[in-house]
């Protein structure tokens, strides 16, 4: 065996060193940041990020991020938050939890975000909740109404929801039923997953010892053919006189049409998830009349830009102005744009409160325990975004609304089911 | 030319540089890059397996992602539900997936060429919904979330979590690389290649068709299973869509781009599979002020793919070998499998000469 010549060795070492330094340069400079400051914050910038479906069948949710971006831009044009401009980086996870962990790593470790804000979806956010909390990176105001976001604060203090959770909403209907229909016989149609079960559990909890008012349930799976006829028949035949519909928009339409065609005339409660006015107008058009769903009850916490009562509202006017300038294709009547902008308002509120103490720890503490925001220009009057040491659900109030011919009409007071 | 035990010095030198670079990557890069290169090792392992099946034995598989699913879910569920130590789940996952592959190989005996490809395609298509359906066992659409593997105590805090996973993944890849090479250089490997080049001739020479085809499937699935388990441990999350059709297609793309039937093919293919989508997205994403506008990374990915296939029909490994051969002024001829027809002679890929050994 012949020994390798020394010159050869030196050359090999040099090639290896060159290759490594090339990789090291390709990777971004890592540890050059100042020691004390959390990543993603400089004297002139705050970097936020989010995972969203930018492609694929769920990409209509992207409007939420666009609504938020429009608000951040308007804040930046007025000088930012304490002189810092907000950069909002949105990456595509296709609403597929298999993609979310990798995209989240990219945001946190490569893009060096300070915090994530508004990540979309229940399964997607669940897949990265451990990662965010172990690395102490805020996972703020996630866009999903599952009750686990506020209910597991002790275990996941860096994670927080924003919108009213599904259980709270169901409890509001339960309260209304107990007051107005104490002898109701309720049939529940729900999507068989965390989302649907959250509503069902909320209804049961809200009814308390009257939970036996629920006389029947029927389910479907997300992705099933959109035909609810057999489920609705089951509920009708159970003798129910009240129909609690826990379905996403396409299935809501199918269920209501089936109900009308079967000649069933129950009192209807429709979850907010499937209650967009656009969907209901489709039902009316299909049936050719609105009597079957007139008087149907649902709930709302945001101002609806197509509701005539807000036509001259200052908040909605500001919303229109901001979309016109920074909207990037966000449609005025799209409720998702409203939700995104309203949540961005809360985010800015938190950053303002943090002032010069812009650490991840301080920001999540403010968001999860010290929020008290009554001036959000896109929430219904009377709704406060509020958290405390004992409650970590930012929005718990909603207002009931009733369907009349071709639009929703809010009624009653703003109601809450949590403290 | 200087040789050390039969291998040309240039090959040894390149290997040495490769090893030094691999050891050095986690020491000079950030956690994200380290983690992504750990993922490269996962794909190296999966692609070595696919190379045995498709590159050396000539059986096209568009379904190896399904075997990765078997391995990934085996590891994840053993860890989550039975508390089995992380490292122990890797061989179990490999063996179970290997068994699945062996069993799949039996009906596959009746199929060849494009029909076999379709059968494996069906496997890749059907398995994720099946996993999704058995929600109580598999967690369904919620997936299975794992705790961090944790760096073993005996390392005394010398390595970060990412660095540990990186070295773990590459050590396994190294061992499995050598193992695959030993098989390919053995009588079994020659039987694989004989079947690839002409089934009739191979059988006439006494090669057992049934034995070798099912063995190739089993081996390939074993590698996929180990890769799946490692992927689960690295990403700490498995979901039916983690192992969907796109993964199976990425594997096939990776091995073709890397170089079918070439030793280095899986390594080059893995770098491609992990990093090209990332760069495609970076290139496509436009930044205007504070907003990132996503472009169409798929178009860039596709364009890069077409370019590579045109410029390097025998894969990047073939391109490198050709460049090396040109540099040395050596002319040789090597056979690269044409999966749909007879052997295709590509000119000139110089295999490291083995004549010094017998």
Describe, in plain words, how this protein is organized in 3D.
The complex is a heterodimer of chains A (419) and B (358). Chain A has 419 residues and is α/β, with parallel strands linked by helices. In chain A, 41% of the residues lie in helices and 18% in strands. Chain A contains 13 helices and 14 strands. Chain A has helices spanning 6-26, 62-77, 100-110, 122-134, 148-151, 166-180, 194-207, 229-237, 249-261, 277-287, 314-326, 335-354, 360-369, and strands at residues 45-52, 85-92, 115-117, 139-142, 159-161, 186-191, 214-220, 242-246, 267-270, 297-300, 372-373, 385-386, 397-404, 407-416. In chain A, the strands form 4 sheets. In chain A, strands 2-1-3-4-5 form a 5-stranded parallel beta sheet, with helices on both faces. In chain A, a hairpin with a 2-residue loop joins strand 13 (397-404) and strand 14. In chain A, helix 12 crosses helix 13 (360-369). Chain A is globular and about 90 Å long. Residues 29-35 of chain A have low confidence and may be disordered. With 358 residues, chain B is mainly alpha-helical. Chain B is built from 14 helices and 8 strands. Chain B has a two-stranded antiparallel ribbon. Chain B has a two-stranded antiparallel sheet with strand order 3-4. Chain B has a two-stranded antiparallel sheet with strand order 5-6. The longest helix of chain B has 27 residues, at 209-235. Chain B is globular, with a radius of gyration of 21 Å. The interface between A and B is large, with 52 and 40 residues.
Fill in the keyword field for this structure.
heterodimer, A: 419 residues, alpha/beta, 4-stranded parallel sheet, 13 helices, 14 strands, B: 358 residues, mainly alpha, two-stranded antiparallel sheet, 6% strand, globular
Instruction: Count the beta strands of chain A.
Output: 14
- H and E string of chain B: EEHHHHHHEHHHHEHHEEHHEE
Query: Helix tally of chain B?
Result: 14
Strand content of chain B: 5-15%
Number of strands of chain B: 8
Spatial strand sequence of the major β-sheet of chain B: 1-2
Mean pLDDT rating of chain B: 85
What portion of the residues of chain A fall into strands of 2 or more residues?
15-25%
Radius of gyration of chain B: 21 Å
Helix content of chain B: 55-70%
The total of helices of chain A stands at 13
What percent of residues of chain A adopt helix (DSSP H or I)?
A: 40-55%
Q: Please give the largest β-sheet of chain B.
A: 2 strands, antiparallel
Largest interface: A-B, 52 and 40 residues
Radius of gyration of chain A: 25 Å
The outline of chain B comes out as globular
